[in-house]
Design a protein that fits this description.
Rossmann fold; SIR2/SIRT2 'Small Domain'; 6-stranded parallel β-sheet; 3-stranded antiparallel β-sheet; elongated; binds nicotinamide-adenine-dinucleotide
Length: 253
């Protein structure tokens, strides 16, 4: 059912939240646009400006690694300045009220942790761009460590331990999905009674399979996104409005 306007959508969502025992949010880039981080597919989004660099190209080509790091550093002011928005804060309020055991996110911006979720309760399907990791041994690095070496030598640094490339701790196209995050997200989708898909175009798979999985396991499904998605027909409630406006009323004071 598509909410006819924002206030009836908020009202119905409030009832569904009250009736639910276990709520699992599933968030995408749309929850962070009001925080100043562009999404991928909207006009002006990141993909309209840069072709993504697939994982095999990153591994094979030093120039691709350099380009990837140049892009990341160009975004640093944006990421560093971003603070949690109304959507993040509403979910944190429901988490603190004991309604949300953990959330699943496609986002890489660390804003759920910044808004008060424990690290272990944020299941990151696509990793995290606020730190770096060696693709060989998995050692983690601060972005400052990478930047200092990049600026000194003109090249993206390799791991100090095993000399394999160092990459933001994100999952690129063509890179294996993190097994632990996938299995925890599967478990959450199957055990919840309300699944909230928020700010995702639901086109990136396998992540986009989780709303369907939750619905098939018996949960109610709510989709909050300002443009249609392919899964709207399946949802119990669709709020096709701004996320901050839809979730703002659920921020606890
Ligand atoms: P997407 O860009 O494909 O979809 C975002 C959706 O949110 C769009 O349908 C857009 O219309 C909607 N939207 C944007 N702002 C909104 C608002 N204020 N209110 C309501 N709807 C709004 O993003 P996705 O589905 O998350 O998938 C793309 C991939 O992009 C993810 O894997 C993620 O890793 C990556 N990404 C992450 C960030 C981030 O961490 N903030 C930013 C860009 C891309």
């Amino acid at each position: 059912m598509i909410a006819s306007d924002i206030s009836s959508g908020v009202e119905r969502l409030g009832e569904m939240i009250a009736e639910a025992s276990i709520i699992v949010p599933f968030t995408g880039a749309g929850i962070s646009t009001e925080c100043g981080i562009p999404d991928f597919r909207s006009p002006g989004g990141l993909w309209t400006r840069n072709r993504p660099i697939p994982f095999d190209e990153f591994v094979a080509s030093r120039e691709a690694r350099n380009e990837s790091w140049r892009r990341r550093f160009a975004m640093e002011t944006t990421f560093a300045a971003a603070a949690p928005g109304r959507g993040h804060r509403a979910l944190t309020s429901l988490y603190r009220a004991g309604k949300i055991p953990a959330l699943v996110t496609q986002n890489i911006d660390n804003l759920h942790q910044a808004s008060g979720f424990a690290d272990d309760h944020v299941i990151e399907l696509h990793g995290n761009t606020t730190y770096a990791r060696c693709i060989g041994c998995g050692q983690t690095y601060d972005l400052g460590w990478v930047r200092q070496r990049f600026e000194a030598s003109g090249n993206a640094p390799d791991c100090a331990t095993c000399e394999e490339p160092v990459k933001t701790a994100t999952i690129s196209f063509g890179q294996a999905m993190p097994e632990d995050a996938m299995s925890r997200a599967t478990e959450l989708a199957r055990q919840c009674d309300l699944f909230l898909a928020i700010g995702s175009s639901l086109v990136v798979w396998p992540a986009a399979g989780f709303p369907l999985m939750a619905k098939n396991a018996g949960a109610r499904l709510v989709i909050i996104n300002n443009e249609p998605t392919e899964q709207d027909d399946m949802a119990d409630l669709v709020i096709r409005h701004d996320i901050g406006d839809a979730l703002g009323p659920f921020v606890a004071n």
